[in-house]
Amino acid sequence: MSTIDLIILGSLCQSPKSAYDLQKQIESRNLSRWIKIGSFTVYKKVVQYESKGYVISETVKNGNMPEKTVYTITPKGKEIFKELMTKFSLAETRVFLDFNAVIVNMALLDENSANECIANIKNSIQNTKMQIAEQLPTHKDIPLFGRTILEQQFLLLETLEKWEENFEKELAKEREEK
Fold it and tell me: Which one of 14, 45, 88, 125 counts the least CB within 10 Å of its CB?
């Protein structure tokens, strides 16, 4: 099972939800920024959970609204959730950054192309940091557990900015020596 499972089951521990409501909660928490998860994945997962006994479903209709299927976590699902919490809290911390694949192959590019890629990485780091900086003041009302992730991401991006500056200096020094 993956972090996606942990997020979905955790959401269902809070309250019963439809697949649509799960997807909307993931979007509202900006989790899709760090974990690739689409609405089809959410729907597929809750169907899998039901077949494994982690959730039960109920079709409900409210007024003139169309019917929807609402999923409620079962005791077995809560146990799986707790197991995943332990598993992921014990797991090795991995930081995978997509742009590292660019860095590894940088020597294969001419200097102008390499500089363009470096500028793209630098801009991406700065833009993401600015987006999070804009969100931080507006998210003071969310619980500590959610807010702290935004703060963590902001601090990581600050560190990446410093790393990128150092990388550019080292690259310039290496180019001068050649």
Answer: 14
